TrEMBL record:
InterPro entries: ARM-like (IPR011989), ARM-type_fold (IPR016024), PP2A_Regulatory_Subunit_A (IPR051023). Gene3D superfamilies: Leucine-rich Repeat Variant. GO terms for cellular component: cytoplasm. One of its GO terms (molecular function) is protein phosphatase regulator activity. The keyword Lyase does not apply. Keywords: Repeat. This is PP4R1 phosphatase. Residues 11-32 are annotated as: Disordered. PANTHER family: SERINE/THREONINE-PROTEIN PHOSPHATASE PP2A 65 KDA REGULATORY SUBUNIT, SERINE_THREONINE-PROTEIN PHOSPHATASE 4 REGULATORY SUBUNIT 1.
Amino acid sequence: QSMDSTLHYIHNDSDLSTNSSFSPEEERKSKVQDVVPQALLDQYLSMTDPSRAQTVDTEIAKHCAYSLPGVALTLGRQNWHCLKDTYETLASDMQWKVRRTLAFSIHELAVILGDQLTAGDLVPVFNGFLKDLDEVRIGVLKHLHDFLKLLHVDKRREYLYQLQEFLVTDNSRNWRFRAELAEQLILLLDLYSARDIYDYLRPIAFSLCADKVSSVRWISYKLVSEMVKKLYMASTPTFVVDLMSELVEKFCRCHKWSGRQTFVFICQTISEDDCLPMDQFA
């Protein structure tokens, strides 16, 4: 019966809604809950103890980090205060594998916690991961759209200024990082206004179109064509006109053959995906 009631509680729609209305007093309560046996939770929380890692298993913190979203889902967001300190401890763990594990799941945790707790407790951790090693940053990058779409519009716009930083990696040969950035930018087009796309995403897209690695360039052609489509449908026509003029200037009239080839491939993608009416394309 206890298990049935717990499962019913976990899958209750109200528990997964995007609103969170817990007072600061409730957040400060001690790490006590009534969903699972308290001794079991205490054992889990003790996994971040450094002495445990030395005497039991050096990978124990990584396993703890891997399980954390599941534990958070089981306990429900009203018991997040039980896990918050442990999460922050793991997010600053010396082992990059632990931080990487959390980076790959932070978007899932945001869905479980709702917008208020995400803004207060997860965004600072997310910001820390953005400045971490590439091995950690890739976890954030792979689910960038999934995380940003959960934030309020104003908060989401703050990250426009940081997207450029993803072009810089510890190892310039890490082309998969830039390919993933191009993939994410295609998804991010739906989250931002025409003005933001033109001002912030366009320069990154043009930079990726000139990448040394062909796999990155091919994804970038798709990115630019989707950008043309999005700006064409916007209420202000000047953005798409300016974008196409810049495509002609930067690539069609480029003194390097590779730039002119890029223009042809972008035109091909725009044509194949019906991003523009043919008269406008001409």
